[in-house]
Design a protein that fits this description.
Length: 66
Amino acid sequence: MATKTISIEVDAYELLAREKRDRTESFSRVIRRLFAERPALTAGELLEVMEPYKGKGAGRRRSDRS
């Protein structure tokens, strides 16, 4: 994959570094996660984002309490 070198101010670098989930996450991944994978802003966007999970539930099933 092609790369591009950029210059940013130290305070911007520190903000970006704080967003890393762990030491192995690249700055490219952080930028994609923050900007390209932004949260859904409308109910329609939320439904679109959740479509791949349709019918899969959201965690462990609860036991019956009957």
